[in-house]
Structures are given as structure tokens and as C-alpha cells.
Amino acid sequence: MNTGISERAVIGIIAAIQFVNIVEFMMVAPLGPDFVTGFGMASADIGLVAGSYTAAAALATIISAAFLDRFERRKALVLGMMGLAVGTAAGGFAYDLYSLIAARVVAGIFGGPATALALAMIADVVAPERRGKAMGVVMSAFSIASVLGVPLSLELARVAGWHMPFLAVAALGLVVSVVAWKSLPKPETGLGQAPPMVGLQGIRDLVGRPEVLLSLCATALGMVAGFLLIPSISVYFQFNLGYPRESISVLYLTGGLVTLLTMWLAGRWTDRIGAVPVSAGATALLLLTIYVGFAHPALGVPVILIFVMFMVAMSTRNVAATTLNSQVAPPSQRGAFLAMSSAVQNICASIGALISTLMLGADADGKLVGVEGVAYLSMVLAVALPTLLWGVNRRLANSIRH
């Protein structure tokens, strides 16, 4: 079929969309000290700024799941990206804490569904036997955002003020939206075309399928396991393990560069041997990393190796899980399912961070107390992912045979 645009080009555009979405989200927390200075707000309020986006994204994806598949993917995706750009630009014009939170809510309302639509477009365009590699490329946007997007945003804020990163990312989002509108497959090409309506009955039918519930449980437990450690990882490295503050950026740069390669490899391995073996191998690496890096740091493993192993293990698990999850729902329900999955990710990331906050404390020197307990809980939850993905894969195989 002549689509007018290659599969590789579609993957590249979707990766660019994900890059904008991820940078937009990731740059806010590092800009926190600038907000404190600019608005005179309390440091504790930074969590409200970051959490407002997550909460809005989760709520928007839950609500949109009932009707997301009624619309042509390309139009809905471009609308989501333009709304995200508007919300981001509004953040650049914020004048106090409340106007900034309002802008973050607008960005989340559009950014959450845009993420689900982007992954749905990949599933529409790329055949299952090549989808792992495609997902690896698209999800590498996270690594690129860590390596380039966030540092550039911080440098732009240092030179031109904290407003400028918001305006720059908003402008980039508009450019990507225009490219997506002009280049992504139109309905008549047969790629990304609008599937039949879903509605509430479709949602009820969808969540009633065992493989869907298993997939959502895998997503939930995987996110909680990761975010038990992720929010406090920099503080832990600095105060507990003595890693210098001025070298923290080196960790993220190194980890991002390594995962650029390993996510591409993870996609190829997933296509070749399947999501379950890849997730099992990555989970084994994650368990080892948490044990030597967090539960028993006295073993003396270098901090940079711990961080790289952690990022590699988490990103590989995500590629394998996302690839398999893209096969769970048929095209007529794919947008709805991925919207629910995105909502589960946002909600469970917040739950993991909250549990971590409740379990951890700090001593007089600023060292985190209770890390060992958090580490073991993360390990227990992490084991569930390959088991649940095995259940999903088995259900899908049975449905194909019958």
C-alpha cells in the first residue's frame, strides 16, 4: 500500500512528539528553585507544581478513554499537541504559584491523551513483528530528553530566565504539530485511520477481558516499584553514598547515553525472542541493582554503575511491556486501552512516590533513613512484571489459536 510516507518517517515524527512531551514534563522539577526565587513561594510547593500536571494527565486520559477512538488518530494527536503547546506557553507567562499550577493543569489535560495517541499510532502503523524495535526508538525520546532536553532547558533558564524554557518548548511543540499534521498518514491511506466508536460499553467490554486487566496490573506494579526509588535517588546518592552534587548531571548524561543504545537493543530483542524473556532478564538486572545499590550499599559498587544499571533495567522493562501491551487491544479499542494504561502510569507513579515519602525519613546529617525497607518492597513488586506479562502473552496466544 502506498501511504505517501514511510514507516520509518512515522516513527521519527512520533518520537519527536514524545520528546516534546517528555521534556515539557521533566524540566519543571529542576526549575523549582527558580520558581521559589521568582514567585517567593515555599520550596515544598514545588511538588504541587509537578503533581498538578500528573493529576490532570491521569484524569484526562481516564475521561478520554471512552471516546478517544471515535476520532481520526492524526487529528486527535495534533489537537493534543497543540493544546500541550498552549499550556506550556501559559506556564511561561505565569505570575504566581496558582497561575503556574493552572498552566500545568492545561498542559496535563492535553499531554496525557497525546501520549496514548502517539503509542496508538505506532501500533496502527507498525506490524507486531517489528513493533518492539519501533517502540524502542520512540521510547528513546526519554533518554534524549535526559541528555539534551533538560540540560538545555536549564541553561536557557540560566541565561534568559525561567520563562524561556516554557516558551521554547511550546514553540517546538507547535512546529512538531505542524509537521505531524502535514506528514502523518491520513485516513484514506489506511494508516492511522479512525476505528469504530468505542463508548462506555466498549470500555466495559475492554476491562472485562483478562489480558487487559493483567496488562494494567503489570503497568501499575511496575510503576510503583520504580517510583518507590526514583524521586529520592539523587538525594540518596548525594547524602547517603557521598556522591558530589556537582557531578549529579554526569550521572544523568551517562545513563541517558547508555540507555539510548540499550533501548534500541531491547526493542530488537523483544521482536526476536519476545517481551517475556526480555522483561525477565531486565528484572533480574533490576533486582541485582537494587540489592547492591540500595539494600546493601556497603558492598561498594560505584554510584555511576548503580545508576546506569538502574536506568538500563527500568527502560528495558518498559520497552518490553509497552510492546506487548500494544497488542492487547484491537484497533477499535487501542486508543482507549492506551489511555487507560497512561492514566494507570501517572496514578501509580504518584502512589509509589507517596509510599516512598511515608516510609523514608532523614537524620541530622540529611541522610535518608529507611532506604533498605523501600528497596526490598521495590524488589518484591518488580518481580511481578514478567509474571504478569507471561499471563498476558499466554492469553493473547490462546485467543489467536481460537
Structural Rg: 20 Å
Give the C-level CATH assignment of the largest domain.
Answer: Mainly Alpha
Gross morphology: globular
Multimeric status of the protein: single chain
Strand content: under 5%
Measure the end-to-end span.
29 Å
Secondary structural class? mainly alpha
Task: Return the average pLDDT rounded to an integer.
Answer: 84
* Count of spatially separate domains: 2
CATH fold name of the largest domain: Growth Hormone, Chain: A
Number of strands: 2
Can you tell me about this structure?
This protein has a two-stranded antiparallel sheet. The model is unreliable at 188-197 (pLDDT under 50). It has helices at 7-26, 32-39, 46-64, 73-92, 97-125, 128-139, 141-160, 163-183, 199-207, 210-227, 233-240, 248-273, 275-295, 303-325, 331-359, 371-382, 384-401; strands at 361-362, 368-369. It is an all-alpha fold.
